[in-house]
């Protein structure tokens, strides 16, 4: 909100590496070269957006509010940058003096500044990446070109790469969780601001520059006048629409384009001999997934109706895109057979079109596309799509499957390529054909998820009503397995349409029947996965098999199981569950009844690993280590069984929930765990951060492909020396994990009053009141940490700037291990081992890198203000004292291991970004504390809470989340 005049733009500096999406920048990205500050354009953008926001605040709220905001800004900057204690006291005094109306204006101003700073940073990442590409230097690390170059150097052939991608599946899965605090209206306005900021990088006349500035000011004014918060609870339908907006912005165009880029890079690195480009095209190895509308775990608002609605809206979105593209192609491909020949196949396709106009008799491409449009429109209507924007010329039969549409588009492609029209394929037709291959008629695969205890209750009722077993839940595991296998071998059903069942049972069966219908209507890729939360036993998997049998999704011949429509996928979440994962899967893979089902799945089985609950259960270090061990054990087991393993990583936004750069996370996986098959969740506000800008979205999709190629195909050293070194590293990690686990559990679960401290010293209660998700914050109506969902657990610690789940326990583990060395020489040897682990072991390096980033965002001074919300002084001092001590230990030991005293020394651009925005986050945190005090005092006095105070708290939550970015 500074009033500094923006520097006029001329030519932008060009060349450097950049951080795009979640990619790391290199140290060179933030240095000056030949006196040119590469970050100068970023600073200009931030100054410009801040000045325009200040002008809007002055105009909308008046001079007095503007002056208050500006004074707070300047004081906060001085306090943060100069560590001025006097400025800190002055800031505190300023914030306490604010009236209620001023408070909300100040909160909105600083919140919007965080949003605008994010826009400027995203644009700068794009700018630096383009500059790097224009400079024509070596492939950027983490790009597909770089990965292919490394594979080539390692002796991997082009044939191996192409064959690998033919069987690969890389799938980002969008999920809706209660950390996405942005309204779609806000996101739409911000996308327009981002477009205008990007436009300023082009050569503009003075008049065009003025016009651009005026539009920016208008869009920021729109932003200011748009309600930031929802006044009603977000519904599942709202979450579906929010997710679909990212398809229109990014995925529909960028995903097909990425395929073209990858194929071009493969052709460049590994030129194919004697193959046409069409023959070299690869199947859709990168596909989108979604949980929104199908994830029932802990969300009573998801049912058969939401699944139907999700697929209908997904289908509408993709058909709208196809129809618009085909219509545009019809205008572009005005090719006349009076000028150039067309293939007989194309002529046949044109003759089958409902278009018989004499005006287009010599234009077979247009006539063929009119036929394609008519068939697509008929298909859309058959699938429930309404409001086709342009009426087709005449009636046509709908497509039976997406492959039929692809085949007709291929006729156009082949004819153009054979008749001097190859240049006309790529601009639009190739992308459209590729889009149909990727998205089909369903857009994204909708996963189903439910908790194992729900399945048990449903089957308990079915068994009891069928007079098979009166108390299924009370049976031992062995008897459950025997009963389930026995029922699976019998062709008759347990369910009877003539009996009454509980609502829960009826709902669960209806959902599975709906899944069957959706697969028939939209294709098998529409729904193909069933995920079981809280998988603890083999019977948890068999129960879902039996439920599929009851609803026609498991096909049986005689007493043999033949084919399963929905893959049964266990989700191992807690530390005990992860430790049992391999044993449970051994039982599953060796069951004679299950083996033919896995064979029918292509000898492939997916396993999902939960990062969130394992962290909440055992802490950051232990969670990461137990996940690593579980993966290794599963790889060994699956190799023995001759079954391909696909791991589904349930990663959240925060590092404590598995977040952090996706590229580094994939490369840090144990050898053999990726193998061309990987799915991972994209959650909360991370979706907006990664995919609301098309260029950054494209970059993040490329990261997934590049990392999967490297992790899967790069040869791994396997000599005895390396194996012994890895074994030593793993032995050390096992001991550190055990120590970290004890330290974490002792504080969180064994210290009296910790739960009270958490609920008092974080805004968890206020977060639960926000209309930011359709899912409750807790699985049960309790205040037990065990029952709290891991998402608001991590989100709350982020709000109070402790980010506790991302580092606690590390310091105690390492210090204890070093102290137990017994003598100085052994202590030095152990420290040297930790340093070697950091340099030579990708798993440990990624763990420390993520912890480094979390610690850079942690602020004990701000956190101490939240600790002041705890009324019990003794409890406050005890808990916060222990957290402070652990923070000091962790920070000191991290520096000792990495050799870097400063946080993020390897990523100075991110370090500077965090440091600069802290000055604007501080007022939000301080105001949040003051507002929480007022609100809780009102509630304690049993008075009606003030709406403006509650709104102010929720606005600060929004602003802090935007400022920290990966908080979900």
From TrEMBL:
Record carries keyword Lyase: yes
Superkingdom of origin organism: Bacteria
Subunit structure: Homotetramer.
EC number from the UniProt entry: 4.1.1.31
Its job: Forms oxaloacetate, a four-carbon dicarboxylic acid source for the tricarboxylic acid cycle.
Similarity remark: Belongs to the PEPCase type 1 family.
Active-site feature positions: 177, 616
Pfam families xref list: PEPcase
A GO MF term: phosphoenolpyruvate carboxylase activity
Comp. bias (Low complexity): 12-25
Gene3D superfamilies: Phosphoenolpyruvate/pyruvate domain
CC cofactor: Mg(2+)
Catalytic activity: oxaloacetate + phosphate = phosphoenolpyruvate + hydrogencarbonate
HAMAP family: PEPcase_type1
InterPro entries, sorted: PEP_COase, PEP_COase_bac/pln-type, PEP_COase_Lys_AS, PEPCASE_His_AS, Pyrv/PenolPyrv_kinase-like_dom
Keywords: Carbon dioxide fixation, Lyase, Magnesium
Chain positions covered by the region annotation Disordered: 1-37
Name listed for the protein in its UniProt record: Phosphoenolpyruvate carboxylase
